Structure formats: C-alpha cells, structure tokens
Request: fold
Amino acid sequence: MGQQKIIDKLCTIPVPANLKWRELRAVLLHFGYVEFKGSGSRRKFFHEEKNALISLHAPHTSPDVDKGCIADVVAHLKEHGFIS
Reply:
C-alpha cells in the first residue's frame, strides 16, 4: 500500500483497526522519524525537527497493530501537524 493511502487510512473516523506494523512504521519513517530499538518489542520513533518522540510496542505473533496504539499514533501525528 502506498504511503498516501496509509496516511488517508489513518485520517479516517473511527480510527482504523486493520493496520500492519510495517505500514505504520513506513509512515513514521516517511514523515522523517528515526527508529530506535529498545528492549524486547519496544520501539521509539524520534523526529528531530519537531523534537517529537513516540514510544510503541511492535506487535508480535501477529503483524496487526492494536487499535489503541493506532489511536495514540494518530493523536501524536495530529498534535505535531503531520495529519489533520
């Protein structure tokens, strides 16, 4: 799926429940975030210009991202002006 389609999906109401980790990660990298791996499945994404940090858990056993995690990412991206 292309970046714009994923971004459009993130902007839907209600928050999408069918997003893959690779799609979410790709969008964050597209917006200029740098990924840092923490312990276990913890991942941090930092945007230097905006001084914005988001900490997430990469899903395991399933590639699907939890809907609560998606909602947190959407709120973060809205707060920092990446999506509206």
